[in-house]
Amino acid sequence: xxxxxxxxxxxxxxxxxxxxxxxxxxxxxxxxxxxxxxxxxxxxxxxxxxxxxxxxxxxxxxxxxxxxx
Length: 69
Hints:
1 helix; mainly alpha
């Protein structure tokens, strides 16, 4: 098949290169998204621990008042 003179082959190369760039950016985006999911899970665990600590302080004070009060 002879090379076309209307520039389709150059346009095809441009489109393929742009699709490859887009694919690379999508891969980077998915990696970043996965990292954010992990960071959110860590933050949920930390907030649960701090919530438990925060709730235990008034409970400990209440018990201390009952025992020593």
